[in-house]
Amino acid sequence: MASKALSQSLLSQINSALNSNPTPETVSPFSFNRCSFPTVSRSPLLSTQLKTNHSSFIPNCSSTSSHSSKDETPIELRFPAFPTVVDINQIRDILPHRFPFLLVDRVIEYNPGVSAVGIKNVTINDNFFPGHFPERPIMPGVLMVEAMAQVGGLVMLQPEMGGSRDSFFFAGIDKVRFRKPVVAGDTLVMRMTLIKLQKRFGIAKMEGKAYVGGEIACEGEFLMAMGSSE
Q1: Active site amino acids
Q2: The organism sits in which domain of life (predicted)?
Q3: What's the CA gap between 76 and 129, in Å, rounded?
Q4: 192 Cβ partners below 8 Å, 6+ apart?
């Protein structure tokens, strides 16, 4: 019985000594390496995340284009033509201007005695482009003003206004501003609105605005001198 107690006491002392002063042999070199210099490994979860993030930068062009091509109308079918209220032959009957100075191609809106909206299709074949300018074709501002005045003439020369093409003149301009250049390929949309009419003196004041693509290209106030047909 005493021998067994002595053995247990001796074993306890040995274990205590080993735990308090571990010898170098008890430390595995592989364990030391793992603790001091951990190696970088890619876990399955991290690998999956990297693959997911990488694939998110690649757009699925084929599915997007095929979807849009089914839903969208072709560009050539999206935009309807301007309506025709007064065509070029009727314009020639009203205005005395002829080539190369007739600068209104069509009237798309007309309110008798009030306003008119006309368009000028600007093309590279217009005779002013070779000189203004050879390297950068831009419609001259004075011709934009002239085109707007011709739209005003279409309002004032109607029978209800009492004007006469034989004695109708562009009398003056005021507050004219050019907001953006007009180039070959543009469609100049011009609205002229009657502001004041003095029939006694044969003077009409009009407000004009010209647009390209919904943006103002030119604006100003116009004076028209109109005679009587009597």
Answers
A1: 132
A2: Eukaryota
A3: 27
A4: 115, 116, 117, 118, 148, 151, 152, 154, 155, 206, 207, 208, 222
